[in-house]
Every structure is written in C-alpha cells, then in structure tokens.
C-alpha cells in the first residue's frame, strides 16, 4: 500500500525519448494520462452519438452545467466557443483525480509536472483567447489598468504580468497540493500502524482498527476533494480568461 | 520532498500536448455534436415559445373580434326588437282607430236605419190616419140627413178610429 502511495509521485521512465536535447521520456504517468485520454475519446463520442437515454441526458447536463455555470457567467456570451475546452478540462481532471482511487492506478494530478502542464494549458488558453478577442495591442494594454499615471505604468505592467503568471502557477500548486495531501495523510496513517507494530506486534494490530476507520474517512474526503478541485481548477481558469479578456 | 516538487519537463510537455490533442479531438467528435443538439433544442424551444405566444395573441385578437361582433349583434337585435315593438304599437293603434271608426259608422248607420224606419212608420201611420179620416168623412158626408144621426155617426167613426189606433 505504501509502495503504491509513493508510486503516485515517482516518475518511472519506461521509454527514453530526447527532443532537441530535452528529456521527454514516457513515464507511467504519461501512459495513465494517455489511458484516460483514450477512454474519454472512446466514451464521449459514443455518448454524443447515442439518440437518447440516461447517459445521453447525463452528458448533456454536464455540457449545460459547464456552459451555464462556468463559461457564460465568467467569460460572457462570446466565450461560448471555449465551452469544448472547459468541458475537456473538467472531465479530464475529474477522470485524472478519480483514477487514483482505483487499485494499481496512479493519481496523475498528484504529480506537479501534470498539474504544471494543465496550468500551462490554462495559461495558453487565457493568453490566446485574450489576443483573439482584443488583438495583441489590446492584450498588452489589458495589463495596464485605466487611469493609471504614466510613471506607474512600467511597474503596473510588470506586476500584472507576474500576477497572471502567478495565478496560473497557483492553479498547478493548488491542484497538486490537494491531491497529494490525501495521499500523504494516508501514508502517515499507515506508517502509524508499522511504528506501533515495531514496538509490539499486538500494538500494531490494535492501532490498525482506528487507523482503518480514519483511512476510510480520508478516502471519502478524497472523493469529495477530487470533484471539488477539478471544478475549482476549471472555474478559476474561466474566471482568469474572463478577467483577461474583459480588462481595460 | 525535492523530487516531489521538481517538475519533469517531459511529463509537462506530454501533458500539454496530450491535453490539447484531447481538446481538439473531443471538441470535434463529442462536444460540438452535443452543443449542436443543445443549441438546436434551445432554438426549437424558443421557436415553440414564440409560435405559442403568437397563437395566443392571435386567439386573443379573435376573441376580441368575436366579443365585438357579439356586442354588435346584440345591439342590432335589441334595435330590431325595439323597432318591432314600435311597429306593433303603431299597428295596434291603427287597428284600434280603424275599429273605432267602423264602430262609429255602424252606429251612425244603425241610427240612420232606425230613423228611416221610424219615418216610414210615421208615414204609414199618417197614411192610415188619412185613409181612416177619409173613410170617416165619406161616411159623414153620405149620412148627413140627421144631425143627431150624424153626431152619432161621427162618434162611431171616432170610436172606430180610437179602436184602430189602440190596435
């Protein structure tokens, strides 16, 4: 169990690949990520093409939820073309977060590299959408709030650029920390059994009873956290896209 | 701990590439068809609501027209009833006047007939009286030898006349 918990965060290179001197080796996490993508690519087009039924209603409700609760209130009507991006972001993060609940699977979002990659994708979405809506000049102007004295402009510009980078960086840290925290707590709880067992074997057995109860509680909490963090990541990305494309 | 927080360039790269490929493919094969169905449905619902509102407005308009026509018909029928009543009253008056005129004429005719009959009776009585008087005078003239006998004769005649008159 402890080994499995640790493997969520360990990069085990399976296929070594170099691109312009950069190491882009395929790892276990890459394959789990690809697995999620393949599952989604099989499942979602199938659900999209069935005529009716509960699954069809479910996927339509999901799209309506993303459109009406995440995209339109934060970006506005012109953000409707980003609905596919946000639907993919939310469902990918949900699958990625819940994958770790399955035995022998890896929670790819408890790896900083994966959450950093997702944050970079969000950052690119924010930048490209803002440029598309306002043009390059408008995008650069969006870093300087209206009515700022000229001598404050360089400082404000630098601050706003850093603000955007930090906001997206924090997205990565938040998701990574929340998804890792549950695993670390479980690791601590299980370690407690072995620590007690080292002193006396019967103490290990006795301590395992409350520890298992607490583990169950933390696992249920992780179920909740997985959904909430996927939603929070998607919602914050939408808010940042809206702020950047509407700012003056 | 350091390994835990140290990003791996390869995994970041594959995450970004994988995610954008996934976005493109899912947008084409899953989300856009679903969004199209939802948009079509929304459009259809809006059209249905719009046509229902139009139908409702049309029904309201027809209802108002019908109410106006009903009121017009009601007014017309009331007017015709009033005219019929007036006509009936006039006819009644005419009939009554005509009846009164006829009755007066009949009364006058009856009066005239009665007067004629009375005149005739008077004439007949006069004629009879003349005959009787002539008869009496004839008898007086024929039997003038004796005054007493004449007197008696006259009295007899007068008695006859009286008797005839009484009859």
Quick recap:
The complex is a heterodimer of chains A (248) and B (167). Chain A contains 7 helices and 4 strands; from the N terminus they run H-E-E-E-E-H-H-H-H-H-H. Chain A has helices at residues 2-7, 28-49, 54-75, 83-99, 112-141, 153-199, 201-246, and strands at 13-15, 18-19, 22-23, 26-27.
Describe the structure.
- The complex is a heterodimer of chains A (248) and B (167).
- Chain A has 248 residues and is mainly α.
- Chain A has helices spanning 2-7, 28-49, 54-75, 83-99, 112-141, 153-199, 201-246; strands at residues 13-15, 18-19, 22-23, 26-27.
- Chain A is built from 7 helices and 4 strands.
- In chain A, the strands form 2 sheets. Chain A has a two-stranded antiparallel ribbon with strand order 1-4. A two-stranded antiparallel sheet of chain A has the order 2-3.
- The longest helix of chain A has 47 residues, at 153-199.
- Chain A is globular and about 70 Å long.
- Chain B is mainly alpha-helical.
- Chain B has one domain (2-120).
- Chain B is 95% helix and 0% strand.
- Chain B contains 3 helices and no strands.
- Chain B is rod-shaped.
- At the A-B interface, strand 3, strand 4, helix 2, helix 3 and helix 4 of A face helix 1 and helix 2 of B.
Q: Helical percent range of chain B? A: over 70%
Q: What is the number of E strands of chain B? A: 0
Shape of chain B: rod-shaped
| Total of DSSP H or I helical runs spanning 4+ residues of chain B | 3
Write the topology of this structure.
The complex is a heterodimer of chains A (248) and B (167).
Chain A: H1 2-7, E1 13-15, E2 18-19, E3 22-23, E4 26-27, H2 28-49, H3 54-75, H4 83-99, H5 112-141, H6 153-199, H7 201-246
Antiparallel strand pairs in A: 1-4, 2-3
Helix pairs in contact in A: 2-3, 2-4, 3-4, 3-7, 4-7, 5-6, 5-7, 6-7
Chain B: H1 2-5, H2 9-142, H3 147-166
Helix pairs in contact in B: 2-3
């Amino acid at each position: 169990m402890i080994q499995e918990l640790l493997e969520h965060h360990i990069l085990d290179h399976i296929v070594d690949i170099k691109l312009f001197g950069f190491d882009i080796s395929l790892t276990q996490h890459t394959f789990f990520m690809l697995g999620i993508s393949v599952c989604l690519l099989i499942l979602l087009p199938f659900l999209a093409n069935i005529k009716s039924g509960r699954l069809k209603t479910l996927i339509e409700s999901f799209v309506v939820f993303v459109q009406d609760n995440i995209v339109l209130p934060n970006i506005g009507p012109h953000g409707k073309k980003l609905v596919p991006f946000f639907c993919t972001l939310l469902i990918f993060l949900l699958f990625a977060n819940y994958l770790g609940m399955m035995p022998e699977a890896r929670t790819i979002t408890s790896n900083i590299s994966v959450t950093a990659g997702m944050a970079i994708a969000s950052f690119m979405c924010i930048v490209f959408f803002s440029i598309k809506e306002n043009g390059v000049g408008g995008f650069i102007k969006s870093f300087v709030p209206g009515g700022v004295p000229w001598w404050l402009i360089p400082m404000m510009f630098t601050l706003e650029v850093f603000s955007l980078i930090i906001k997206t960086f924090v997205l990565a840290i938040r998701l990574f920390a929340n998804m890792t925290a549950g695993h670390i707590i479980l690791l601590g709880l299980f370690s407690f059994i072995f620590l007690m067992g080292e002193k006396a074997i019967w103490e290990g057995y006795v301590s395992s009873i409350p520890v298992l109860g607490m583990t169950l509680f933390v696992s249920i909490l992780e179920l909740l956290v997985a959904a909430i963090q996927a939603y929070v990541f998607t919602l914050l990305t939408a808010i940042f896209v809206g702020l950047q494309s509407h700012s003056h | 701990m350091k390994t835990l927080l140290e990003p791996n360039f390869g995994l970041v790269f594959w995450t970004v590439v994988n995610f954008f490929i996934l976005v493109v493919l899912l947008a084409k094969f899953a989300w856009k068809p679903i969004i199209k169905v939802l948009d079509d449905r929304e459009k259809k619902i809006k059209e249905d609501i719009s046509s229902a509102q139009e139908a409702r407005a049309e029904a309201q308009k027809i209802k108002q027209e019908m109410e106006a026509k009903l009121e017009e018909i009601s007014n017309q029928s009331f007017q015709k009833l009033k005219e019929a009543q007036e006509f009936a009253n006039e006819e009644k008056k005419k009939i009554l006047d005509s009846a009164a005129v006829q009755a007066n004429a009949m009364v006058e005719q009856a009066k005239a007939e009665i007067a004629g009959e009375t005149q005739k009776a008077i004439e007949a009585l006069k004629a009879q009286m003349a005959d009787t008087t002539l008869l009496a005078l004839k008898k007086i003239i024929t039997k003038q030898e004796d005054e007493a006998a004449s007197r008696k004769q006259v009295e007899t005649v007068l008695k006859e006349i009286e008797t005839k008159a009484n009859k």
